Each structure stands twice: as C-alpha cells, then as structure tokens.
Amino acid sequence: EVFFWKEICERLGINREDFHSGNGGNGGNGGNRGNGDDGNGEDDINSDGHPEELYREICEKLNLNFDNCVTNQAFDGWFYRQQFGGDEGNWWVSDSSFYRWDEKINIWQHQPDNRILAFIAKASEKSYKLSYSKMLDWYAKRPYECNSHKESAFKYARSRLEREESSVANNHLLAFRNCVVDMRTGETMPHNKAYYLQNIIPYDYEPDKSCPEVFLQFITQAFGADMVNVIRAFTSMFLDPTAPYGRFPHLIGQSGGGKGTLGRFWSLLFGESGSGNASYFSDISTPEGRHQYLTGKRIFGFPDMGGYAEGVRAFYELVDNGPLNGRALFNPVAYPKQWNIRFWLASVNHLQIENAGDGWARRAYPIPVLNRNVQPDPNLGLKLEAVKADVISWALAMPREERDQILTSRPSVDRAINSAMDASLYGDSTKSFVDLCLRPSSDAGYVDNHQLHTWYVAYCKEHGYTPLGMSKFASHLKTIVPLNFVDRHWGQQRDGVRSRVQAHWEYLAPLTGAFTKIGGDEQHNNSQNSPPSNPIWVCIKANCHEGGLEQFTDFWNPPEPPKTPEPSQGKGVQDVQGEKPAQNEPGHPETQSQQGCPSCPSVPPQSFCTNQKQDSKKEIFEKEITYYTPQVGGDKMDTLDTRSGTGFRGVQVQNDSLKEGGQGGHPDSVSVPAISPPNSPLPEDFQEVVIPETEVKNLMALILDCKIWAEFAELPEMNQEKIIAVIEKASQRHIKYLSRLLSTHLLETNNFNDLTWLPEKLIAPTLPKIVFTVTRKNLGSQEIEKIHGCRMIGIKSENQKFWTFSALGIPMMAIHGDDDFTAESLISDSLAWG
Q: Is the pTM of this model over 0.85?
C-alpha cells in the first residue's frame, strides 16, 4: 500500500505528505473518495471536479480516451453522466419509461427500454478500468461488459431521471405539426416542452374541412351510408382526448371487405410511434404486458381476432380508462396509471367472449361490413393517406353533442342493432335460451330454478350446446333477466309459523309449444310401488322463435309511446295506410277502437268522489305511493291476504291473434299469453263538447300533457283545493268528459307494465258485487299497513281518518277509516279514475 501510493505520487509529481493531508488525513477513506473525516481536499487535486482526474496523465501515456476511464467511479454514474449529463433537460422518465425531447417534431418521444439497454451495452464496450502491476506497469482492462453492470446502470439512470413534472397532465391538449390545440376551447398555442405531450398528429391543423370524396366513397361502399356518422364519431374519438371513454368500434364482416383498411387508417392517425396492436386480449392483461404494449401509445388495435377470447376484464377497464397497474423491466414495483388509450377491433365472425355477461355488449359498437363482391384497390391505402389531414379536420369538426350521443348510446342503425344482438347470443347458451324459448308473462306465477334448468338442458340438447350446471345457469340467468328473479325469503306468519320461500322466478313462461313433457308423473301414477321419476322434457326446435330478449326489455322498460295524434272531425284516425273506420267494441259503447287494434279496458263514467255519500272536500290526490312486493300465499283467492301461483294477471290486454291453439291446450304443454298494451283513442265526440269554462279547459290541458297517472299526480299545478274547486264549478257533462279523458288518455299509452297487478277476480265484470274486509290493527300509531296478498297495493292510515289505497300508475283512492269496512264502494266509484 505504501509503495503503491508512493509510485502514483511520483508519477503525478505530487508530494506524498501533501497528498495525504489534502484528502482528510486517513488512508483509504481520503484517497479513494476524496472526502475525508477532517476536511475536503478534492478541489486541490481535481479542480474541474472530474472523478478520474488522478489518472489523466496515465491515460494520455497509454494513449487511451480519458473520457472512457472508469477507475475511480462506478460504472452506473459514469454512464449516466456520459449519456444524460450534458443533455439532462431533454430526458425525462415517467412511469418507468424513458422520454426524450425531439427538437425536430417538438414532442417528448418515447424511448423503448431496449434502446436504452443498447446504449448501455455500447458504452460498456468502450469503457475501461486502469490497473497496475509491477511487471506490466499500468494497463487497461474492461470489466463492465456484462449483464449485471448493464441492468444496474439501467436502473440507476431510470431513478435519476424521474422528475415530479411527470405528474403534470395535459389530456385536453392535442399536438399538431404546426401548433397545439386546446380541445376544450379550440384555442391554438405554440409547442412547449412544459406541456409534456408524448404524441403528435403529423399533419398541420386546418379546421372545418369537408369530408374528402375518396374517403366518403370508401366508407359508403364498404360499410354503408348509414354508418358514415358512426365512423366519423369514432374517428373524432380517436383524435380528441376529451371525448368520452367506454366504447370501441368492432369491425366485423368478410375478409377483404375493408375492415383492415379502416383499422390501419385509424391506427396511423398519430403516426407509427403512436399506435400498437396485438393478437390476444391476454397480451395486455398483466402489468408487464401493459407496460410493454401500451406505453407511449394513443391508439391500440386488435386487427384479426377470432375464436374464444380470454382476458377481457383488463380490456374492459382499459376501454373505460380506469387505472390499471403497469410494471417495467427490472423493476419490482408496479405503478398505477390511466392509460388514455383508444381501442378498435376487427374480426370475420362474432367472438365467443369469456364472461360475456360482464359488459361486452355495452362497450362494443358493431360496425358490420356490407356483403358485396369485393374488388380490391391496390392503391386505396395511398389514396386515403393522401387525404388523411382533411379527414382529421372533418372528424374534429363534428358537433360534440352529436358525437357524444353516438358514443354513449346504443346503436340506432338496424344493421348495428342486429349485429349487437347476434354478438350477445353467439356462444352464450343461456342468453340464446332466453331469446328463443322464454317470454314475459302477465301472470306472476312461480317457476323453480330446477324447472327452468330442465327446459334449458332440453334446449341445449336439441340445439347442440353444452349445458351449464344448475347453479351456474341460475347465476348467469340473473344477469340476463334480473327483474324476474325473486330471492329466497321468509313468508308470512300463519298460525304462529313462518314458512321459508325458495328462490324462484316470476312473470316469465316458456314459449307456446317450445317444450313438451313425456313420462314422469304418469309412470308414478300407474304403479304405486314404482319410485318417482323425473319427467322428460323435449324441446321442439320448430317452435322456438327469437325475440325473447327484446320482449323482456320492453316488458320492464316500456318504450316511449308516440304522441297522440289530433283526431279529425268526424273521421277515424288517419295513418299512412289511409283512414280506418272507427267502431265500437262490444260491451264498450263509449270506447272507440280501430280495426286491428286490441281491445282496451273501458271504465264507465262516474263521479269524481270516492264515496258519493261523503262530502266532496274529502276527496284527495296523494303524491306518495306505497309499494309492496308480494309474498307467496296460499292457493285460494278468497281474500287479499292470500295469493295463488296463477291467481294474478296484469291489467293487460291479451292479443288473441298471437295465440296458437289457445291457452292451456295440452296438459303437458306450457304457454305464455301474448301481451299487447292498449291504445285507445279519445272519445269520438270529445271534440264536439263545448267547454266555455277556462279552468276546466286548463285542467284538461294538464291531463293531455301527461302520459301516466304518476306524472299527473306530481305536477306542481296539482293542488287538491284547486281541483276540487274546478270540479264543483263544472257541470255533470264536463265531469263526464273529464272522467273519460282520464280513463282513455292516461291509459292509452304503452305504460301498462307500470300499472298495478290485481287479482283476476277484481277485474271481472262483477266488480261492484265483490266484497272483502280489511281490519286496521293500530289506529293510533299511524303506521303504514299493507295488504300482503296483492302485489303493488298498499294501505296506510292518513291522519286517523282515511284508508288510502295506492298503486303504481294510478292515483290514491281513499275512504273513511273505520275499524272494519267493505271495499265495494271503493272499487266501483274509483274506476272513474282509472
């Protein structure tokens, strides 16, 4: 040691004593690092701060490049200073990824990890370390050409370049070749490093261009003129970072039809460096895969998907722009990130999606290719590339509201709607079973899980599917028709005992003739000693018809009805097919109908009072409605406290023309009544009534502005005293027509699914003759009390004076709150109110 430092000092012309004193006094600590315990003498030797200054003369004598000497420093620090030290302001690390400011294109360009590793490998090849021996004197060796030094230098540089500025988010800015545009306001600004924008559209920004003819012709021929606005909206979505997330276009159709051409056109909107693609969703389902495939990208495509697709959960989250972790190479720590990436997908056929019920139909927007004889144009790609700048301007000029409406709504084009339905049924045996074999029923009924699964297994056997197990089938079915499922619960207490009601299904039934039963109960009845056997259900494929999914949707969410047309004076209702003569339905002398229109329930005009013996001031219009979900009762319908499995039906009109063979033909066949909402026009002579009173006319105008009873009851103008005052002033004829208006207009819309479900007896023609008794138990507490046997009907005490019957879609009906009372007058008098 003494000889070694003596030799170095002699060669450098430095006094050995001065050398020790200048470095802090103690041997290795002062000599190797320049920082001693008692002082810092490095500046006396290395005036320029270079850690290898001690070896400069030796490097010159050995004819070596002094800048590549790595003797008195670590290789990690030497590489950082060599590669980034003089250019540190132009390098930046964000989320474990390297970016470099490119002065030519004015953007922070992503530098892949393998490029940085290549820099390190080249640097290790030219770096050297000086060593000394008595025989060889000073010589150079190269110990840094190995993976350990390469990986160590990579990690060190990544840590040194991480800056807080990486958290700056400018997702509302879009960089063009000539400017930066604020997509919120349309303001243009010059390029700036401080924006930290990582992608650029390699074209000049020229707003409000029209669609180029070559692009419009391509879209029209390949996808149809009805898809032009849809494709424009998605092109704008790919460009505009402020557009809503949660949707991606799915191009589907024959090979060579234009899917790949449009997909590549979308991918190159930000140039080659701004897009990526993969073959499987699983490629981006892991943190490592996302860092590898998605870093630095704005658009990502799956150009040729097919077969069974797995790993869609992470893909869904990326489409919704939710935060997902990424993890870089040689980094044990993952980072959370919102990737801000748009996706597109193309396939020849519909995909069989893993967990299809998790949201594929909600996120995928199908864009089907037209079926045509394809004549490929080899120069089409070049033609589209030449007009890309104009297409970008045309897409960004689309009104924001119109674009967002397309991106956030269900498809409105018929071909897209049908394609979306086909995609949801493709490979999903449960959903296909619902669409082909089940229908909503106005009868609540009681269908067990095992019965539905038995029909489902028979369907799968006949249609070539592999059936699911019963528990998995029931779980998946709840995601398809959730409102038809009734969970397990405790029933009503009877004779001190509460029964347990199993989970079951209601308001659904198999399609007429879709299934038939053979064997089972008959064999058991013929022989008392033979064990019971399961009936064998067979699916009749010819009787399975599509449409169940749409009917269930309309059943629970009725579509908005068309506006009521103004009736012509003295004529029937006009339509595009000409006049249809009006006729009176048998038994309904005051109700008008048209040929081909289902029968509508009519209500004889009555007084507005709920009880004619009561003072008119007692009549009330309540806004609160008490709802009650029925529990399963007994098998009789003698009172409202019991309910049979088939004793209920909705206040619906059955369309007999849709029945095949009537209801309940064969004892082993099952059927469902067809549902057709009524559409009764106003009374024929309504326009002929002269109503001079302004108040009555205003009340009629309020009624005509509403669609259902609930809407009428919640109007701000709906004041009890005002309405009573109007009724007291009106003549009996005006009251009659007000009653008819209420019973026709508010019930002619397609809102019968919102009405109450009543026992079948109570909607029979003998309504005034039916008498039932309800006893109030706790008069003083004013607690809400319910009739447990009837769905959607409840009673409550109101100021200890009234019993109020309420139902969804109809107004409150009230009578005096005696301890015991009959509902005969309530039923007959209230029908005037619908």
A: no
